[in-house]
Write a structure and sequence with these properties.
Elements: E1 2-6, H1 10-22, E2 26-30, H2 33-39, E3 48-52, H3 60-69, E4 77-82, H4 87-95, E5 100-103, H5 108-140, H6 150-166, E6 171-178, H7 181-188, H8 190-207, E7 213-216, E8 221-227, H9 231-246, E9 250-252, E10 255-257, E11 261-267, H10 276-292, E12 298-300
Helix pairs in contact: 2-3, 7-8, 8-9
The structure holds magnesium ion.
Magnesium ion binds next to loops.
């Protein structure tokens, strides 16, 4: 565990440093508040800091305040070191954002106990962040394929459209639906169907550009978001997606099965005022056309369709 200490008095600083090193901590030593502030900005900065109150350049209070102004993560646990022991001063220190304080000259067992308390808080903080991150993933990811779920991809589409309007840029969507997927479930069972969906999802994910997004829109239906694309640009990506799926058979427990898909493409380059609903309806209508024309193909939504979707 790394601890940053900032103390301008040499004797006190050495004593603190030696004590912490003896206890097995890795110590980053600073001689004033400015150094401490800079030390806490570095990558992989210590998350535990012991700051002297009275220091040249920046005092401990100011360092506390500046740190708390920043993002709360990763959290820095701050122990304020002070020779003042009046109650009002301590309140000022805690209000500035210090987590705890220690009066000088410090008492080693007390310091040890307070550091342990600090580490407990940091551990809890890490657990909370991990739990929140897991929840976020759960809330936005399709558990079967690892792609965005319907809510997340629609949210991304709305954001992308807003940005495209601001930057006078286009955005395209591709609606892709696997052909005759029900037959796979019926003949091979749902587990095989799931395996096929995962393989198809992996292939599509590797055929899009890094700034595109892909989500599972429904059972075997996928929505792909292509920022900066007009219809011809989106057509290239759609063809690539189609080939990535139909180009080689999927492997279902040793059995090879060829899966094709139908795709509908729409772009706001055809309709600059288009919102998310319009684009989805237009791509859906184009997909419907691809299905009726015999499947395993890409169709495009043109302006005159006015976004009429399948009913
Ligand atoms: Mg001092």
């Amino acid at each position: 565990m790394k601890i940053l200490i900032a103390e301008d008095e040499t004797v006190s600083r050495r004593l603190l440093q030696n004590t912490l090193v003896k206890w097995g901590y890795e110590v980053v030593v600073c001689r004033d508040g400015q150094e401490a502030w800079e030390g806490l900005q570095t990558q992989d900065a210590p998350q535990l800091a012991i700051l002297d109150w009275m220091m040249p350049k920046m005092d401990g209070l100011l360092v506390c305040k500046e740190i708390r102004k920043q993002s709360a993560e990763p959290y820095v646990y701050i122990l304020l070191l002070t020779s003042k022991s009046q109650k009002e001063d301590l309140i000022t220190g805690l209000e500035a954002g210090a987590d705890d304080y220690l009066t000088k000259p410090f008492d080693a067992p007390e310091l040890k106990a307070k550091l342990r308390a600090g580490m407990r808080i940091l551990d809890l903080q890490t657990e909370l962040i991990n739990a929140r991150e897991a929840l976020r993933v759960q809330a936005t990811q399709d558990p079967l394929t690892g792609l965005w779920n319907r809510g997340a991809i629609l949210e991304a589409l709305r954001r992308e459209i807003a940005r495209a309007k601001r930057e006078r840029n286009s955005v395209a969507v591709v609606m892709a639906d696997l052909d005759h997927f029900k037959r796979i479930n019926d003949s091979y069972g749902h587990l095989a169907g799931d395996a096929a969906l995962r393989q198809v999802a992996d292939r599509m994910r590797s055929s899009i550009r890094p700034y595109d997004a892909i989500g599972r829109y429904g059972g075997e239906e996928f929505l792909i978001l292509l920022p900066g694309c007009n219809i011809p640009g989106a057509a290239t990506v759609a063809e690539r997606l189609m080939t990535s799926i139909a180009g080689q058979p999927v492997d279902l427990a040793g059995e090879k099965l060829l899966i094709t898909c139908s795709l509908g493409v729409a772009s706001n380059s055809e309709a600059p005022e288009a919102d998310a609903d319009w684009l989805i309806r237009a791509a859906d209508a184009a997909l419907y056309q691809a299905k009726s024309a015999g499947r395993d193909r890409v169709e495009f939504a043109l302006k005159e369709m006015e976004g009429k979707g399948r009913e």
